[in-house]
Amino acid sequence: MKRNKNYQSNKNTLYLIATPIGNLEDITIRGLNTLKAVDKIYAEDTRVTIKLLSHFDIRKPLISFHEHNQAGKIKDVLKDLEQGLNVGLVSDAGMPLVSDPGYGLVKAVLDNEYNVVSLPGANALLPALTMSGIKTHPFTFYGFLDSKSSKRKPELENLKYRTETLIFYEAIHRIKQTLEDMYQVLGNRNFVICREITKSYEEIIRGTLDEYNDLPDLKGELVVILEGYLEEMEKSELSIVEQVDYFVSTGLKKTEAMKRVSQMTGLPKNQIYNEYLNNKVEREWHYEIRMFIIRRIWRCWSISHSWLIETS
Questions:
Q1: Global model pTM greater than 0.70
Q2: Where are the beta strands (DSSP E) in the chain?
Q3: Superfamily for the 126-231 domain
């Protein structure tokens, strides 16, 4: 176990700085002061960040840091920290690392025992959740689903029986297909789309998944808030063993079937495994007993039949 007091150590620091997602007034005073104080700023797209810095008259060395060059840039950041510099990391909009690159950098900085300080600030998921009208607690933020429907549907299958509210980011050109996949996999649920949050043309769309085809063409950044699984959506009269057997009959492996039943019922997987295993042993025992009795009957019949033939 390691303990580190970020503000009481003399270590150099990587600052994760939240930036506005559409309205420049959402930058915090602390965020501005930190951007002014750091020695270098690494940005997901320097063309985007330079507009923010220029608006607030901040002049700092600006270096690109994105998913395609981060392996090499991590070494540069570590070298900066080693040389006594403090460094800032920003994404195009919102909180760094949230559906944006930076996790590998944070891990490397921590592994090398420098400070990592995250500044609270603008993000899309929390405003979307709180104005959605869908239950706000508990919730799971998933980020982006896979861009391909063939991979997206298995992801949704794994989320099907999660009872908490689910939050996704999605691209405008995929949103209708994603809602259709959700409807096919999860059944009909309430959803909310929050578009262009904090901008003057912010829009909230509320509906049910069976209305996916009525969704108009959209522009801008999207957050999808989806109602979690409700117990009354699917009530099963089957026993645990029968439920596992059902999913096995659909082509799932037994371990996958048990995981699915665990998600549906909320029971621990080991409890389902033990119940299924005990039932299987019991069924096999009953089968062996039945087969033993059948064999004994058959043998007795054969002996009796042979005796009748011999005496006739």
A1: yes
A2: 13-17, 40-43, 62-64, 87-90, 115-119, 139-144, 165-170, 190-195, 203-208, 222-226
A3: Tetrapyrrole methylase, C-terminal domain (3.30.950.10)
